[in-house]
Design goal:
The protein folds into two domains: about 20-125, no CATH class; about 130-420, Purple Acid Phosphatase, chain A, domain 2 (4-Layer Sandwich). The strands form three sheets. Strands 1-2-15-3-4-5-6 form a seven-stranded mixed β-sheet. The protein has a six-stranded mixed β-sheet with strand order 7-8-9-10-14-13. By secondary structure, it is an alpha/beta fold. It is built from twelve helices and 15 strands. The protein starts with a helix and ends with a strand. The chain has helices at about 5-10, 20-55, 65-90, 105-125, 130, 150, 160-165, 210-220, 245-250, 265-270, 270-280, 340-345; strands at about 140-145, 175-185, 195-200, 230, 260, 285, 290-295, 300-305, 330-335, 350-355, 360-365, 365-370, 380-385, 390-395, 410-420.
Length: about 425
């Protein structure tokens, strides 16, 4: 046999040969496809359980029940893939990229996770807060950031858990952003243009963050020539923090009306009635139970409160939307942004909320992922507009989890202007 014939035979190898270029290419495409399916599975799996985690916190269930459900959700999210792999008798995650080879249970759940990811994933991206913030409805006039306030105030006593968490690189727990925003409203009486409202939320007194930190934030707000001071819930978490209430919220002067609502943590610790009593004794107005018609130096403001789903009014709302006067300014204070629809129904011009902490951990480009709301992280923080109501959601200044990454604690002065 001639060398040329031998050469030709080598060049025409069987396509089924695993080393044949076509077979190698097919194998590479098969592996790539399996990786794509696996990634979709992981995204859908995590996305579903995170969505469930967010929305369970929007319910009015007792916090102990919610915490138990949360732990179950986290446990299932982590363990379910391992159980499916054990059930399949494999330790190769790529097996879930070959759906046709899976058992019925694994196949069904994999299809569900992939389908959830394909449907909910794009919707989740479209509902990122950065895409829904009403950027044409506000202007940031001033922003200052005090960093590491525990270092510049060594006399402040920081709790042991907070001290440990502050060692985490990038933790902004003891930072404070003070900002002034100009809000542009559709409806505001001419006389109230320029009204300045101080807004803070989510104090979460646990004993870990020194009370001087919160007093520092309040004193800054009071120094800004505000006409109203509004606190949108979650004041306390631990009974041992009760004695610090007068030091934080007292002696702020009588010239500025101070209004508050309670949140889910105030109910969870069983101190809601005590906090209401102490706060009212300190001169704060309880908007969770009563509505108010207040006189400010610039004119009259009607204030309505909402603490649902955790508390329900013991009194009949004093100023329903049906009784609203054409030229009155209606301000709402709600702990949760889930009450946006309520704000619109009550014909509010402005609604102030908290509860979501801005997500506490915000990722570059993506933003917040975890937020205790039926809307997920859509209204985690910022300014949002759904006619006729403009909603300002504060990132709050504390939380039970001593961590803030890419999500500065904030207090805000909101200066009211006309949109056009």
């Amino acid at each position: 046999m001639s060398p040329s014939c031998s050469s030709r035979r080598i060049q025409h190898r069987d396509p089924n040969d695993s080393h044949h270029p076509k077979a190698v290419a097919n194998l590479n495409w098969s592996i790539l496809f399996r990786w794509i399916v696996l990634v979709l599975f992981v995204i859908g799996h995590i996305g579903f359980w995170v969505s469930l985690f967010n929305r369970i916190n929007a319910t009015g269930l007792h916090r102990a029940t919610i915490k138990a459900i949360e732990k179950g959700i986290v446990l299932v999210c982590l363990i379910l893939p391992l159980l499916l792999m054990a059930f399949e008798g494999t330790n190769d995650p790529l097996r879930f990229g070959e759906l046709s080879k899976l058992s019925p249970w694994s196949y069904t759940y994999s299809l569900f996770a992939i389908g959830f990811g394909l449907i909910a994933g794009p919707l989740w991206l479209l509902h990122r807060p950065q895409f829904h913030t009403a950027s044409d409805r506000y202007r940031t006039v001033q922003t200052d950031i005090d960093k590491h306030l525990h270092r510049s105030n060594p006399q402040w006593l920081v709790g042991s858990h907070a001290r440990k968490s502050l060692k985490l690189p990038g933790n902004q727990l003891m930072h404070l952003e003070t900002n002034t925003k100009s809000l542009l409203l559709d409806r505001i009486p001419d006389g109230l243009v320029g009204l300045r409202i101080g807004h803070l939320s989510d104090i979460h007194l646990t004993g870990e963050i020194p009370p001087e930190y919160f007093r520092h934030a309040l004193e800054w707000l009071v120094s800004q020539e505000i006409h109203l001071l509004c606190l949108s819930g979650d004041i306390i978490d631990k009974p041992e923090a009760l004695p610090s209430l007068p030091m934080i919220f007292g002696n702020l002067g009588d010239s500025i009306p101070r209004l508050f609502v309670l949140g889910n943590h105030d109910r969870a610790c069983g101190l809601d009635s005590t906090v209401r009593r102490v706060m009212t004794q300190l001169g704060w107005l309880d908007c969770g139970q009563y509505d108010y018609r207040l006189e400010t130096p610039l004119g009259q403001v009607v204030v309505l409160g909402n603490e649902r789903p955790w508390f329900h009014r013991e009194t009949t709302p004093g100023f329903s939307s049906a009784e609203a006067q054409a030229d009155e300014f209606r301000l709402g204070i709600s702990h949760s942004p889930d009450q946006f629809a309520w704000g619109k129904k009550q014909d509010l011009s402005l609604l102030l909320c908290g509860h979501t902490h801005g997500g506490q951990i915000r990722f570059p480009w993506i933003g917040p992922v975890i937020a205790p709301s039926k809307y997920g992280s859509r209204f985690a923080s910022g300014v949002f507009h759904q006619p006729p109501t403009l909603m300002h959601v504060s990132r709050g200044i504390s939380g039970v989890h001593p961590i803030r990454l890419g999500c500065l604690p904030e207090v805000s002065v909101l200066e009211l202007r006309k949109y056009k």
